[in-house]
Amino acid sequence: MTPDELAAELDRVGYLPDAGVTTAAFLALKMHRPLFCEGEPGTGKTSLALALAQALSLPLIRLQCHEGIDASQALYDWDFPRQLLHLRALEAAGSTVDPDTAEASLYTRRFLLARPLLRALEESPCVLLVDEVDRADDEFEAFLLEVLDSNTVTIPELGEIRALVPPIVVLTSNRTREVHDALKRRCLYHWLEHPDLPREVEIIRRRQPGVTEHLATQIATAVGKLRDLDLLKPPGVAESLDWAAALLALGRTELDAETAATTLGAVLKYREDATRAVASGVLGREAS
Known about the structure:
The protein has helices at 3-12, 19-31, 45-55, 71-74, 80-92, 99-106, 116-123, 138-150, 181-185, 197-207, 213-227, 237-249, 257-262, 271-280, 282-287, and strands spanning 35-39, 60-64, 76-78, 112-114, 127-131, 152-155, 159-162, 168-173, 188-192. It contains 15 helices and 9 strands. It folds into 3 domains: 3-73 and 118-192, Rossmann fold; 76-110; 197-278. The chain has 288 residues and is of the alpha/beta class.
C-alpha cells in the first residue's frame, strides 16, 4: 500500500486526511511503530484511529485513559466473584480436591478478565487506540512503554503472552500535560491542526449531506472565527457537525446573526465562551 492508496482508503470510510496525517499513518504501518497524535480537542485524533481500523478492515480496541488508571484496568484482572462461586461449588459438591489444586483451579483462563492491552496482544492484527494518554500518570506511562516495546505481557499464573503480529497503535493526547520523552521517542509523532476552511466544508457536507455548500461554508467560517477567540473550549470539528445538524433540524439554510445566537449551544459548551463570542461581534459579522 502506498501513501496515496492509504489516503484513498481513509477517504472511502469518510475520513479526509491531509498529506501530513497520511504520511504519518503510512510510516507507522510500514515501520511498525506506534503513532503519537497530539493536538487540540476536536482535531480528529480519535477519528483517525477509527478510520484506520475501518480502512484496513481490522478490529478496533480502545483503551480510554483517565486519572488513576493502573495496569490491572488496562491489562487484566481476575474475576473474583466467579472465583468465589467456583470455590463454593467445590465445597457444596464435597470435593476432595486438595487445597493447592483448588487454588490453582482459580487462576486459569476461565477466570481471567482481559482488558484492552491484553486483548490487543491476543487479537492482533488490530488497531489499538490509547486515547488521552496525557490523563494517565507517570507510572502508567512507564508500564505502557514496556508493553509497547516488547508486545508481550507476563501473567504470573499463566506465563508469557506475546502478540503474533504487533497491533497498530495510535496514542492520542490533548496536551493537558506533557507526556514523557521516553514514550514519545518510541513513537512516530504528528501534531494535528484544525482543518482549513475548504477541508472543514467538505467534512461537514460529507457527514451532513443535507447541508448546502453555502451553509457549510458559513458554519466553517464562523467556527474558524470562534477558534481565534480566547475561549475556554474552542470548538472542534465535532461541534461544527453538531451545529450543522442543529441547523438542519430547524430547517435553516442561512446562518444569520439571530440563528447563530439561538443555536450557539450546539457549538460552545461554556457560558463564558458564549458570552465572549456574542460580545466579540463575530456572529454579527458572519451574518452580514
